[in-house]
Amino acid sequence: MARILTLTLNPALDLTVRLPSLELGAVNRSEAVLAQAAGKGLNVAQVLADLGHELSVGGFLGADNAEAFDALFRRRGFRDAFVRVPGETRSNIKLAERSGRITDLNGPGLEVGAEAQRRLLDGLDELAADQDLVVVAGSLPRGVQPQWLYELLLRLKRLGLRVALDSSGEALRQGLAARPWLVKPNAEELAEACGPAGEGGVDAQARALRAGGIEHLVLSEGAEGVRWYGPDGLWQATPPKVEVASTVGAGDSLLAAMVDGLLAGRPAEQVLREATAVAALAVTQFDFGIADRERLARLQAQVAVRALDRSARPQRRAEP
Questions:
Q1: For the purposes of burial, counting CB atoms within 10 Å of the CB of 267, is it exposed (0-12), middle (13-18) or buried (19 or more)?
Q2: Could you write out the DSSP letters of every residue in 212-249?
Q3: Of 31, 213, 233, 263, whose CB has the highest number of CB atoms within 10 Å?
Q4: Are 109 and 90 in contact (CB under 8 A)?
Q5: Is residue 226 within 8 Å of residue 299, measured between CB atoms?
Q6: 252 has catalytic annotation
Q7: Which member of 50, 252, 287, 309 is catalytic?
Q8: Cα–Cα distance measured from residue 204 to residue 227, given in angstroms and rounded to the nearest whole number
Q9: 3-state SS, residue 7
Q10: Domain limits of the chain?
Q11: Which CATH superfamily is domain 1-21+32-144 in?
Q12: What's the pTM value of the predicted model, to 2 decimals?
């Protein structure tokens, strides 16, 4: 069991509305409504907790509607290190159709001032002192600049921590410059952060980031699977066909399971197989976490994993 800190800078109250199909401009009747305290880092934390790890959770949280988050922290046994700021945590509406299509209506997020940002940074030394790894995941709230995220990642690294990052846009671009231990973009997010892909495409961009000091680049490709550029070369996993309930949280589940496997030191093929199965399980459910171990085992047996290229393994430096 590892001690892991997840930072969710822009959490949300997710309201998932399930309906047969969405008809624009018409009255739509829902089948069910599910309200959840969420955000990418908190989703990751729930999966990691189910995998047996001890979690601390932090970031920025609205003081005016924190009840659902407080209840989640108590239920899961999370150590609460969120900085409370005035106002309400944003609400996100997710329209989930039977086909598996999700329409997201995401709120803008809290306005986080300089004082709250300083409080989070100033508390890192104590907060991260006993942690084995930090996951920083999600978007930035209003008032928080991408350069601040870069400084946050550098501070975590100076504390001797491995940092896993999952973000997008300018936040991801700045985050990549800090060279975290692991990043998990999709192809579109990687291209947006790195600029237009040249002759070598996304593959060349991923290899360049690896050469620049990022140890693990996990490229999620949705139903097509996962490509992992790491110390053991390039691996690809193809998930089994499943009935999709919701894709929300699938990438977070993938990231959590990758972190779990890497911390345990499992062989590369096993790490990727297990992580892909956890992500496949996630799309079959609306809740976050691993509730059905038997089904997970069946999915894992159906994941296809192959090594595409082992030339990415970095050369070890000779000992002086």
A1: exposed
A2: TT-SEEEEE-GGG-EEEEETTEEEEEEPPP---S--TT
A3: 263
A4: yes
A5: no
A6: yes
A7: 252
A8: 13
A9: strand
A10: 1-21+32-144, 221-314
A11: Ribokinase (3.40.1190.20)
A12: 0.91
